[in-house]
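Mods, move this if it's the wrong board.
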Amino acid sequence: MQRIKSGTLTVADLDDLTDLDTEEVVDRLSEWCPVRFLEGRQRNKREVGLAQARQRQKYLHCLLLTTEADRLTSLAAMTCLRVRRLPGSADSWQLTCGAGFNLYHDPDGWRLKLLEERTILLSDETLRKRGWSLGSR
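Not the wrong board. Structure tokens:
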């Protein structure tokens, strides 16, 4: 858990990730990142979004975890997540993800993808269906 928190996972740690109890992972990481902004389930897939803090429309030091069939399949960490209503629209949001990384498991094993700042637009309905909880909706 400490290596996940510090972002210093080693190659040897990767095999252990798939064996971790996902509820325990979420519980322990929630101690470090107590602000939960995403809790979604679709069939056997679960997504959880955690942040260390929230300042107005910005979530700081975010973790996004994805599990399938109670096995961790993706762990993304980013510096921040900025959220704001799309100007002139009552039902759309603009989400800007800060830089970070995504560690994900595919059929060939664990992969690492660096994340650059990126902005996407999502509707209230899409966010609600996915389990996002952005506060002042």
